[in-house]
Amino acid sequence: QVQLVESGGGLVQAGGSLRLSCAASRSIFSINAMGWYRQAPGKQRELVARMTSGGSTNYADSVKGRFIISRDSSKNTVYLEMNSLKPEDTAVYYCNALLVRVTTQYNYWGQGTQVTVSS
To answer: Could you report how far apart the first and last alpha carbons of the chain are, in Å?
Structure first.
C-alpha cells in the first residue's frame, strides 16, 4: 500500500506559478509510476503529468511547456511545478501512485489539493 500526502495548492493570479508536492509513504522507486491528475467541477478527472520509476515522463497536451513533474527520491516526494497558470487550470489536483503486481494494477490517491487561478 501507499499513502500519499499532498500540499501546495492555493489561489494564484493568471500567469503565476505554484508548486505542488506529494509525499509517499514508501520509496518512490518501488512505485511503478507517480503522477498528478486534476478534476474541475462538472468534468472528469484527467491526467496532468506522470513519471515512471525509470524517470520517463508524459504530460497532457494542455500543460506541455508550462508544467514540470520532478522527484526527490531522498524525500520520497514528487513535485508538480506549474507555470504560466491559466484560469482553465483551476481544479482539484490529486496525486496518484500506480503499483503493478503481476497482472494487477493498484491505484492510490492523495486527498486532493485545490488550485484556483483567477483571471
So the answer is: 40
Quickly tell me which residue has 503486481 as its cell: 101
The CA angle 7-61-53, to the nearest 5 degrees, is: 55
Contact 11, 118 (CB under 8 A): yes
Residue 100 has what pLDDT? 93
| SS3 per residue for the chain | CCCEEEECCEEEECCCCEEEEEEECCCHHHCCEEEEEEECCCCCCEEEEEEECCCCEEECHHHCCCEEEEEEHHHCEEEEEECCCCHHHCEEEEEEEEEEECCEEEEEECCCEEEEEEC
The pLDDT tens digits for 28-66 are 889 999 999 999 999 999 999 999 999 999 999 999 999
Report strand pairing: 33-39 vs 91-101. antiparallel
Can you say how many angstroms the Cα of residue 60 is from the centroid of all Cα atoms in its chain?
11
